[in-house]
Amino acid sequence: MATSTTAPAAVAPPVREPRSRTRRGTRSNPLGWIFSAPYLVFIAVVFAYPLGFAVYMSFHDYFFTAPGVTVPKPFIGLENYTAALVDPAVRQSFVNVAVFLVINVPLTVVVSLVLASLLDRVAHARAFLRVTFYLPYLTSSVAIVGVWLFLFSSGGIVNRVLGPLAPDPSWLVNERWAMPSIALFVTWKGLGFYILLYLAGLQNVSKDLYEAAATDGASRWQSFVNVTVPALRPATVLVLILSIITGANLFTEPYLLTGGGGPNGASSSPVLVMYQNGIQQGQPGYAAAIGVLLVIGTLILSYLSNRFAGGRDR
Amino acid sequence: MHRRTARLLAATTVLGLTLTACGGGGGGGGGEAQDAARTARGPITVWYSNNEQEVAWGKAMVASWNSAHADQQVTGQEIPAGKSSEEVIGAAITAGTAPCLVFNTAPSAVGQFQRQGGLVNLASFPDGSSYITDRSGDVAKQYQSSDGGFYQLPWKSNPVMIFYNKDLFKKAGLDPDNPQLATYDQFLDAARKIKSSGAAKYAINPAPTSEFYQSQFDFIPLYSAESGGKQIVADGKATFNDPQGIAVANFWKTIYAEGLAGKEAVQGDAFASKVAAMSIVGPWAVAVYKGKVNWGAVPVPTSTGMPIGDIHTFSDAKNIGLFSACKNQGTAWDVLKFATSAEQDSALLTKTGQMPIRKDLSSTYADYFTKNPSYKQFGDLASRTVEVPGGANTVEMLQTLRDAYTKSVISGQGDVTQTFNEAADKVTSLAGRG
Amino acid sequence: MTTTQQTPAAGRTTAPARRRASRRAVVPALVGGLTLGIGAVVFLFPFYYMVVGSLQREPDQTVAGAFPHPSNLTLSNYVTIDARLDLVRSVLNSGIFAAGVIICTVVFGALVGYALAVLQWRGRGGVFALALLVQVVPFQLLIIPLYVLIARSYGLADNYLGMILPFAINSTAVIIFRQYFLQLPQAMFEAARIDGASELQLLTKIALPLIRPALVTVVLLTFIGPWNEFLWPFLITKRADLQPLAVALANYLSNVANSTANPFGALLAGAVVLVLPVVVLFAFFQRQFVNADLSSGVKE
């Protein structure tokens, strides 16, 4: 994960003292650990323990029982994993999420970048526009899903406007369109947060760069491409990774929008399959195995996107 | 950075595993405590469903118990019903925070609760089995676990029927007082007329979504009738791919293929909003549609058009579970018997219109059925209800059936017989495991 | 991990100069304005539709239905919700839940964020990676072990503490704190240290006041998590008088709404009730956000 906020080096050399000293370990401030202690305790309790539990379950034929009841929960090695890998429902859910990411991630990056840089320079109605863009992000899916169902149902206003162009069956019950519709919804809902991240990044871009570009006769588009986009690279990597992570953890939307991953599982997601197996059908071990596979997949994807988008930061 | 993340993930997991190992050692040895709890008396907590009518009944029942038992007070609470109440109960069992009685236990969840060790076998009370069988008669057998115990008290059922909208039928040129809906052909003819006349957008509109429980309101009621009262699993073997099951599936497939039912979930109630001219519902609907829809009710169709006296249907039952976390199980058992006494059952019937699972229901409450003729057919059907299969894998079986159904029937993909055969094999193996 | 950080160039262009520069490009500005305008419509329309739909007596899905019609207007959808739910109580519960999370996140999150950005210590990279890692793991994987832990081991079922605990420190907030603290010039801290200030004083007296915009962002981001959270409080609270608004509304929607005359209206009215406090709060803080932009020269 790239965490530097370096602006193009050509403009101004870093003023700050280099940090390399710490790396060599000549000085380590014990306050670092003390300040972090509450957070670390928190992580140990609500994250490490349940995660360890989940990994433990994934190697067992696990079953949750009432206190004091003993049911055999035999160690079964990789059985849950092999079963998950050949389960067509699990496979389909991973394919679905891939489709989701292919639509959602580029769209998120491009649209939030464009809107953020426009918003950064706009003089009027700034407050209004901000509230507008953040609104979907601030709203609970539970609340907003109803409106989308209303808008995108077969007799809904979207299809009425589209007329003969409307897909049949309608968006969310069409095997081809269900996942893209969900991807659009999630993109729309999340953009506010990513715009916020980009805006924060934009505060770091030296205005001199734009001045310099303008003096060179660059058009606004050229300065966007040559100044803004490169300067925002660290923010872009963050946006990329966070949107991959949220996409991989997709659950609420298929659960609510398409009645549990319909039609025919065309909009199911790994977390949804996990939920069905682990919580509804009482097979937490199997569900945990799916979850662990998902976490590994997400880590690989984030690593790759950091590798390729983060590029020279390493 | 990411190499570090991977290392960190491993470290965190190991830390978590260590914590798991330390924390997981406890427990064990609850047998004696359970025996002592069996006779203990004192205050208890019960949960009832949160729909308006049942809350009213629950409050009245608790108040009337409390007024007579100052030393054994009952605290009543609404539980979040809806989609996830089984998940809440399951989690509460694991945490040992379940209440004493839940007056909304779904039979499809009982097998899992039992395997979790969350339920008390009611047959372990001296008068347990006899009380249940005396009250419910033969129907009680469907609620017995494979070891012969009763981990639920069969409480009330909602035998489902076809409701139809008389006004829309008239508009479609169908006889509103004596509609011909007994056989599949008649039903399809009527449905086509509704659609072609434009009386309603859909003839009928069961939820076409993939949740495991949805089959209980399209496939299973018709299969119960067509097969003369078979469960979808009998003697450890899936039955729903037999000729009757395939006939039911093909009937629904025609409905969907001709657009007589929607493939899209309708927000709210399609029948109340007149989007659909028919609906598959239980007696609760009588009160709900009162004054909103001019309705009539007929039994679900069969290929041969069985008379109502021969029709079996899905029960849509809600039962009562006594949970092992309960400290005062003696009181809980008494409250359970009090709440299912003839008097309380009468109150339940009057307040909610749901059918207490009692033998001779129609004769016991003859007065009620004379005064409320619209409930009469339901009362009659209540003695011929069919339940979902028991055991710890019920939900997975239902999900398997549902997946096969949405694919081959609703979407019309692939061959119905083949898809159902594959699903049946899987369900049979699940039944073997459970 | 390289964490080089550059201070913004000292000689920032003055506002008039910027305006002069952009005046040359009227057409691109128009295109930009138009894009923002279309964006605003796309973002706002569903909310507008939500409000209109919640006021309808009969659901109207036609294009004309998008415009309120006097004969089809009613407040009854809201009246039904109010009659069925104890709105004041559930808003209060949501408030306690959110406030607990916000306080923990601001106090402890700022501490970690400061340690990660300003202090030099071994293990810093590891802790930061941990904050990222937490987000990779889906909550559904952890929820049952967590529930057993909190309800069985700690006995915190039906308790505000149990509700708050899993959300107590928002890891995204930690990352944002760190990011903002990184933007403050190290030299400033060095100077204060030479003056004998302790790190805690540096954090509370210098760093935090300087990143007020981040604080607002963190409070807002942290607020919406618990405010909108459904699954966890749903599991951990059985008592109706402890349920936050999202849970109470979801219950209402899954049971009661279907049996009302206009289920869509009821659903949308419920959505409005849930969204409204967030919008009000955000609109209130909006001024802070704008100020934040104007004063983003903190770094200079």
Automatic annotation (TrEMBL), chain A:
Any one Pfam family match given in the protein's UniProt record, by short name: BPD_transp_1
Bilayer topology annotation: Multi-pass membrane protein
Comp. bias regions, Low complexity: 1-14
Swiss-Prot/TrEMBL keywords: Cell membrane, Membrane, Sugar transport, Transmembrane, Transmembrane helix, Transport
Location of region: Disordered: 1-26
This protein's GO CC annotations: plasma membrane
Subcellular location: Cell membrane
Residue ranges crossing the lipid bilayer per the database entry: 31-57, 94-119, 131-157, 177-200, 231-251, 285-304
One GO process term, biological-process aspect: transmembrane transport
Cleavable signal peptide: none
Residue ranges of every copy of the ABC transmembrane type-1 domain listed in the record: 94-305
SUPFAM superfamilies reported in the protein's UniProt record: MetI-like (SSF161098)
PANTHER family: ABC TRANSPORTER PERMEASE PROTEIN, DIACETYLCHITOBIOSE UPTAKE SYSTEM PERMEASE PROTEIN NGCF
Family: Belongs to the binding-protein-dependent transport system permease family.
Name listed for the protein in its UniProt record: Multiple sugar transport system permease protein
Species per Swiss-Prot/TrEMBL record: Microlunatus flavus
Automatic annotation (TrEMBL), chain B:
PROSITE patterns xrefs: PROKAR_LIPOPROTEIN
Gene3D superfamilies hit by this protein: Periplasmic binding protein-like II
InterPro entries, per the entry: SBP
Superkingdom of the organism of origin: Bacteria
Pfam families noted in UniProt: SBP_bac_1
Keyword terms: Signal, Sugar transport, Transport
One Gene Ontology CC term in the entry: ATP-binding cassette (ABC) transporter complex, substrate-binding subunit-containing
GO biological process: maltodextrin transmembrane transport; maltose transport
First and last residue of the signal peptide: 1-23
GO molecular function annotation: maltose binding
Family designation: Belongs to the bacterial solute-binding protein 1 family.
Protein's recorded name: Multiple sugar transport system substrate-binding protein
From TrEMBL, chain C:
GO CC terms, sorted: plasma membrane
Compartments it resides in: Cell membrane
Main location: membrane
Membrane topology, record value: Multi-pass membrane protein
Transmembrane stretches, start-end: 25-49, 96-119, 126-148, 160-181, 202-224, 264-285
Location of the ABC transmembrane type-1 domain: 91-285
Biased composition (Low complexity): 1-16
Record flagged with keyword Membrane: yes
Keyword terms of this UniProt record: Cell membrane, Membrane, Sugar transport, Transmembrane, Transmembrane helix, Transport
Keyword Cell membrane: yes
Region (Disordered) residue spans: 1-20
Biological processes annotated in GO: transmembrane transport
The family this protein is said to belong to: Belongs to the binding-protein-dependent transport system permease family.
Protein name, as recorded: Multiple sugar transport system permease protein
